[in-house]
Amino acid sequence: MESYSFLFDLAIIILTTKALGIISNKFHMPQVVGALLAGLVFGPACIGVIQNNDFIEITAELGVVVLMFSTGMETDIKELKESGKSSFFIALCGVLVPLIGGFLVAQYFNQPDRIPSDASSTLFLQNLFIGVILTATSVSITVETLKELGRLKTRSGNAILGAAIIDDILGIVALTVITSFTDSSVNIVFVLLKILAFFLFAAVAGVCFYKLYSWWSELAHRELHRHVVFAFAFCLLMAYCAEELFGVADITGAFIAGLVLSGTKKSHYIAAKFDVLSYLYLSPIFFASIGLKVALPEMTGTIVAFSLVLVVVAVLTKIVGCGVGAKICGLETYESQRVGVGMVSRGEVALIVASKGAALGLLGSDFIGPIVIMVVITTVITPILLKIVYKKDPDMISTIDDDGFAKNYEIQERLRQFSQTHSKI
Amino acid sequence: MESYSFLFDLAIIILTTKALGIISNKFHMPQVVGALLAGLVFGPACIGVIQNNDFIEITAELGVVVLMFSTGMETDIKELKESGKSSFFIALCGVLVPLIGGFLVAQYFNQPDRIPSDASSTLFLQNLFIGVILTATSVSITVETLKELGRLKTRSGNAILGAAIIDDILGIVALTVITSFTDSSVNIVFVLLKILAFFLFAAVAGVCFYKLYSWWSELAHRELHRHVVFAFAFCLLMAYCAEELFGVADITGAFIAGLVLSGTKKSHYIAAKFDVLSYLYLSPIFFASIGLKVALPEMTGTIVAFSLVLVVVAVLTKIVGCGVGAKICGLETYESQRVGVGMVSRGEVALIVASKGAALGLLGSDFIGPIVIMVVITTVITPILLKIVYKKDPDMISTIDDDGFAKNYEIQERLRQFSQTHSKI
Hints:
Two copies of one chain form a homodimer.
Chain A: H1 5-26, H2 31-42, H3 54-74, H4 77-82, H5 84-109, H6 123-135, H7 140-149, H8 155-182, H9 188-219, H10 224-246, H11 250-262, H12 267-292, H13 301-328, H14 333-342, H15 347-359, H16 368-391, H17 399-424
Helix pairs in contact in A: 1-2, 1-12, 2-12, 2-16, 3-11, 3-12, 5-6, 5-8, 5-13, 6-8, 6-15, 7-16, 8-9, 8-14, 9-10, 9-11, 10-11, 10-12, 13-14, 13-16, 14-16, 15-16
């Protein structure tokens, strides 16, 4: 390490995400919107004061891991189980509808006289691949927004969390199926077995850690730092195993680690410490890094048209797919709307999938720009849309599930903090 | 970023620094010792499970910046000013004595029939350069140890802090003088002017930030997150400017930023949040990274002998130099001992100086190994020695300054936390 420019980069990121976050708040938008814009405005896409680099990218990845770990700790495992079936159905609809929508849009634009493609696969596979890109939900933006609005612990919040995890698994399956057509080394059965193995592993590791931790925490209950540190190590190991050993997303491993801890006595204390790590350091870098990755492409008229259509289809297919799925599972209409909107954001997952596809000859180079635009717009509008759908107060009778809980949540939180500080003194 | 191995590295670092820290505690040594050993044992020097890399190195640098920032916030600016004169004298003696000691040791060993040197400078400059390497104190280990022992806010603690900052400046001057003999682009007058300019800049920036912050914090006094975030941005900018614009150490800039904030109302709240960031994430990485940098060199009998003599001289010259300096300035004998011991640790500064010297032909390649060994040993024994000298209880009459304060400190700290949590609810 020779240069100290990381100090400058960090200062700009931490300052601008907060400043634009405050400005967003003044316009009645969640702070997340401002944080996302900070990376766009000060990154290579506009002013170019800061550039993306390995350090920022790794720290950002750690940021989303910690975010999902905290979310796991705050999730009620019982409620998540209860919403399991409907989550699966929501995720399935939310994968199929965008898959078909993306395929149809690509079918229209991916032609030699419209947008000529330089990819090596058949047109059918290429078009299907654009559908696959549209399936990937990035739940972290939604989670942060719901936390900010105090609505994470609602029925719709739980449904979104469950559906996002399953969406991730279905996304891996879809990606594997399509790449197995071009890359003979990819075996779909093997991938499915690995996913299955991961959940077995997670269950065994979770139970072992829980028992070991419960036994140990009786011995060392006064040394609170240790609880936080060992919890962090467990989170990191689960995230690592998920990604490297089983091919599942690291955030899924971190979320499960959080779920395991959610049942322990010290989980609120631990979660409070990770909150500090997130808001002070990791989250600003994560949100800014999304914007930093964006370099706006050269555009022709047809590519602009394709981009716009892709954005509209991306937004609508998720809202409709997940919303209808939720409605069929018995959620209220306003809850179904919320679930649909919560799944709109695509984020970095779509970009990773796209770059894999480009390497395999499944995606023409002219299509990468519109996908970047789709990711940016879906990511920035998700928190704005969420604020709108969570603001609408449904009639009083139906507020018991979704709103009653949220209103109580803040009061409960304060009471908990009060009793905690008293037990510490 | 393609690999997720950073998750594994972080898990091992966070787990082993804490585990070895707890074991150190069982042997009545500060936790810092265990954290330092973790990097040595699990790094390339022994087991080799984790390797140093850019991400770890940058995060470690940020760790020491935040550590010195927190230290600045906890420092009483008035007491630091009062100890200013004696700090300068302590630092001066603590630079001159090791400089001469190192020169004499090198004079004996740096001969063709003992350790042949492949450096291009004259033998006189080479030997002087080894003296320069011995002048650089790394105060962060001492700061962490004194924090752990609850003794940072003592007269000796203040003297160490002040002397370490001045030591850093004197070290830069010494390095500049010697490199100006081999590198014609280095101009000592220019370097001195830049150092002077830095302190002017720091004073102006500090006053401006203090006024702006005091005005703003009246407006936004309820949004506590913002205070912490803007304080962090100020710290990062000061660290960056110190290093990149003025050639002063980044930690000096961060320490001054902390000093500026120490006078504000919210400084205890802000310091508590940075404590979490440090113990949970940044500090373990910083301490482990010191050990990770160590790759033990091939050794001949003479090189082993040189290493041992160098270690002894490095330890004794700092204890004697700073200790005698402190005694002359009117500190009690036991306080002078503490100051001397607190300045023993060399840490990463000596390694950076050594690698610069090697590049300029001032240091033979066979001399790098012994310097690494000297750095490791002085770093690991400093917290052990500190615990010993801070344990010895002097007779009651003289405890008012150093010990009375420390004993009160913990009680005051608890009271402050109590009143803080009450004002929050």
